[in-house]
Design brief:
Blueprint: E1 7-8, E2 16-20, H1 26-40, E3 45-47, H2 63-75, E4 79-83, H3 93-104, E5 109-112, H4 118-130, E6 135-138, H5 142-154, E7 158-159, H6 177-186
Parallel strand pairs: 2-3, 2-4, 4-5, 5-6
Antiparallel strand pairs: 1-7
Helix pairs in contact: 1-5, 2-6
Amino acid sequence: MHQSGEAWRPGQGRRVRLFFLERWGREEALYADVIVELTKMGFSIEDLSLAKGRAAFAEDGEEAGMRGEMAARIYSSDVLIAPLKHFSGPRDWAAWSVELAGLCYSVPVMLVELEEHAERRRKLVRPLQAVNARCDVARPQAFDIAFAIARLLQRSPHQAIPDRAGDSRTLYRGPQRSALSEVMRLHPHRPAS
């Protein structure tokens, strides 16, 4: 088992951790097929997605806790997969998640173009491109999404996520420790099967 900070390659050392922002409804079967395609490519996958009904629909009093949990899951992921569509309601969880992943945590972002929205695409992709964040956009086809994810994963070596400062000269940055600890408790890094 690799320790925090050691480099790894897909299929060696640990599973690739994916966070699907929306893994239910129309997208449930599509993303299940994406995992199958990635498995065929030699990746072992761990899905960090929230259960149906948990994500994006928190009541006002639960929003802070939901954001903390989502932040911890995104931070712990190797790739964020988000739908490129307009969200109805007062919160745009996709924009928030994409900015958090790509701009704050340097987690690669895979946008799935479920609907044609050129303006929405520009709004989400331009800030990522401006800082050279790793991102890609794919059609809603399992192989296309899996291929783009594989490309994102192979652009640079990956490391295990540090969950605490190494020494007094290292500053910890990331989600709230309690939220991250809970995600790591539920989804510890596991060897590839």
